[in-house]
Design goal:
179 residues; alpha/beta; five-stranded mixed β-sheet; two-stranded antiparallel ribbon; 3 helices; 9 strands; 23% strand; globular; DUF6546; DUF6546 domain-containing protein
């Protein structure tokens, strides 16, 4: 688990510097160390069936009863893919830190919002939830790719525009792509 503190901008009153960092990749969990969720359940995803519910259409009753995972055994984070406002703090902290990374070429922040049961490698990519942020210095592009709607706040736009200017661009090319 991580929080914005990973990009802490001050230590002992001095600004942290990242003079030689060229690539930053981070895969983070759906909650902060303090236990605050970064993602909420997206109502568009199929929820698990409650106990003693009728079988799915076209399914075999015996199979469902014997092999269906009980509701209480489903992971707490399952189906959490809708970004919450707390996630903005992470993007602000990352942008502020990137302003002190003169050699940064790329940054990838990938949220752990998988909603399946470990079948990423066998299912169509369109059925797997995702939430990613990528910054590409070569063109000053800041891109969010998300299964659920994500709103880039003015404050986030400002900080990533500052990063792009720091890296020689007029402003960031900011985009949000829904998958």
């Amino acid at each position: 688990m991580i929080g914005p503190e990973i990009f802490s901008s001050e230590r002992n009153g001095k600004q942290l510097q990242w003079p030689n960092l060229t690539t930053f990749k981070l895969h983070y969990k759906a909650a902060t160390p303090a236990g605050e969720w970064l993602f909420d359940r997206d109502p568009r995803w199929i929820q698990p069936s409650p106990p003693n519910s009728p079988p799915y259409p076209g399914s075999d009753n015996e199979w469902n009863e014997e092999y269906e995972t009980p509701l209480e055994d489903w992971r707490e984070a399952l189906f959490r893919s809708h970004p919450l406002p707390a996630l903005n703090d992470l993007y602000l902290a990352a942008g502020r830190a990137a302003c002190h990374m003169p050699k940064l070429e790329s940054m990838l922040l990938e949220g752990d919002v998988s909603n399946d049961r470990g079948l990423d490698h066998v299912v169509d990519d369109s059925s797997v939830a995702k939430h990613e942020f990528e910054y590409d210095r070569s063109c000053g592009r800041a891109t969010w790719v998300s299964t659920s709607a994500f709103h880039v706040t003015d404050e986030i736009r400002e900080v990533w525009n500052a990063v792009a200017r720091f890296h020689g661009h007029d402003e960031a090319k900011i985009s949000v792509r829904l998958t």
